[in-house]
Amino acid sequence: MSVLFTSISETNPVKADDAQALLGPLGLTIDPAEAQDFHTLLAAVHDCAEGVAALPDYQPIPDQTKYPRENVRRPGPDEQVFGQAWAHRFLIRGNAQGGPLAGKSVSLKDVIAVAGVPQLLGSDIIPSWTPTTDATVVTRLLEAGADIVGTSTCENLCHSTSSYTSAQGTVENPHAVGYSAGGSTSGGAALVAAGLVDITIGGDQGGSIRVPASLCGCVGLKPTHGRVPFTGIASGDALNDHAGPLTQTTLETARCLDIISGYDGIDDRALGSSKPGSTNFELATQNTPDSLEGFKIGILKEGFEHSMVSPAVRETVLNAVQKYKDLGATVEEVSLPDHLQGPAIWTTQQRIAGAQTLLGQNTGRRGLCMTDMERARLPWTDDGFQRAFPSTKNVIVNGLYLMQKFPDLYGKTVNFGRNLSDQYQELFAKYDVVVMPTTPVVAPRHGKRELPLDSLKPSMGLTINTAIFNVTGHPALSIPVGFAPANDDDQVMLPVGMQIVGGLWQEEKILQAGHAWESHHDWKKVHYSTGKN
After folding, report:
1. Which of 80, 97, 140, 396 is the most exposed, fewest CB within 10 Å of its CB?
2. 484-530, pLDDT tens digit by residue?
């Protein structure tokens, strides 16, 4: 404390009544006899903060000589596809010496830092900001030989599983104009599903990899929490943050996971992950046996019987699961009633932590803090709040209310989330994987930016089977298993996703299950009208 006292400057801006003004909104008061001391202490901490603010930041420095950024630009109408699938176009050529991903093209969800490339975050609340560092996944992809060809549109601050909320424009489903591509990794899923890029790296806080993979008809993996470092990726809630790949095949997903996984010495989410380069998911997936005899698959009763699951999706996924019997696997129904608590636990947790993050109040993690982004987006202004999409406004309103009225609730969600995780781990002691529909319906029609309830309606319920695994941290893979008709037009056929979930750190099993199904069935020939190849 003596250092603080001696550092108080003559130009210190702290006023005599500032301490009381800070406490006033909380209904707290300062004893007049203590007021001068608290003024002195507040002034001292201000000078301390000024000193820290003047220190140089400590950001990883990317090798832009080895990996120069070529022709960074916002794509014009002639370059855009599926509405507004691209955020920025550029080229960073991968390792000239080659590598496991040589010749592969990659897009990055527009929340993943690339030095020198403006980041939009799907928002226009603030001007785009330009990172000075590369996310860990970017460095690893380049070292593995991949070419990064752009950033893909994400939904507004990642607060939607629809694909019309981005301030940059709507992303169309590659199978039908007018229908959602899913979110929040909307642009990347459309690009992969259409074969315009080989790989997209997305972020998933409640389903933002798996939902668009399901709606667009590609493979999307949310790995075990911490398997892939989140360094250099905009966070929602560190407990729910996951990064992972979207590709056209499970084998490609496994190959990419080998490259991007492993603790990077920075992100504390990844402390339990393997040493980089030590996994071999690709080989294990490639060597999936033709016979799955001894492999036990659970059909999660609650994941199929939820009232929101459409009959067409339910039947398509059930038919897909039954095909495992032909490969020798044991397939039987299982039940975990508390699965139905997942959406409420996730919603409460995400509203509180999400509001804290948006307001710059989320603390307590060791990792890379993107200070440039924080300075760009804070403090909030009323003008910025008015331009925010209703889902973002709702996060702030809900979060502030819950923190005020239920002060112990975030801790309760963490505790109950551990309960859910433990229950699932008990289930995975008996079954290798558990399956269910990824999303309860096929892609819905786009909504419109109207009053809040109307704006949020198209995405309501899409994460009933996905968000719970952000809470528990279990790895979950979505693969396409057929087509079913759109809810509003039975002539429009749209993809159906099946979610395969495994035990913590058991990605190998879900990748093998996905690859086994893919190897024996062509999902594009499976239609709800027949349910047969």
Report:
1. 97
2. 999 999 999 999 999 999 999 999 999 999 999 999 999 999 999 75
> What is the SS3 string spanning 250-307?
HHHHHHHHHHHCCCCCCCHHHCCCCCCCCCCHHHHHHCCCCCCCCCEEEEEHHHHHCC
pLDDT at 153: 98
Measured CA to CA, the distance from residue 513 to residue 382 in angstroms comes to 49
Residue 502: how many other CB atoms lie within 10 Å: 25
Q: Identify whether residues 239 and 315 lie together within a single domain.
A: yes
382 CA to centre of own chain: 27
* 41 and 86 assigned to the same domain: no
Domain count, the chain: 2
* 88: nearest Cα among 105, 107, 62, 66: 107
Query: What domain range is 495 assigned to?
Result: 70-525
Which pLDDT belongs to residue 464? 98
For the purposes of burial, counting CB atoms within 10 Å of the CB of 38, is it exposed (0-12), middle (13-18) or buried (19 or more)? middle
Tell me how far the alpha carbon of residue 195 is from its chain's centroid. 22
Pairing of strands 176-180, 172-173: antiparallel
Residue 531 resides in a domain:
no
Residues 233, 131 contacting (CB under 8 angstroms): no
- Domain assignment present for 63: no
The whole-chain average pLDDT of the chain stands at: 95
DSSP structure string for 124-167:
-SS--B--SS--HHHHHHHHTTPEEEEEE---GGG--SSSS--T
Separation between Cα atoms, residue 451 and residue 460, nearest integer Å? 15
CA distance 481 to 188: 20
Q: What is the CATH number of the domain that holds 382?
A: 3.90.1300.10
Residue 389 inside a domain? The answer is yes
Percent of the chain residues topping a pLDDT of 70 = 98
Distance (Å, whole) CA 208 – CA 187: 11
DSSP 463-515: TTTTTHHHHH---EEEEEEEEEEETTEEEEEEEEEEEEEESTT-HHHHHHHHH
| Catalytic positions, written as ranges | 109, 184, 208
Asked whether residue 435 carries a pLDDT value surpassing 50, the answer given is yes
d(CA 499, CA 481) in angstroms, rounded, equals 10
Residues 470 and 352 occupy one common structural domain? yes
Cα dihedral: 273, 189, 339, 414 (round 10): 50
Q: Report residue 341 as tokens.
A: 């608590």
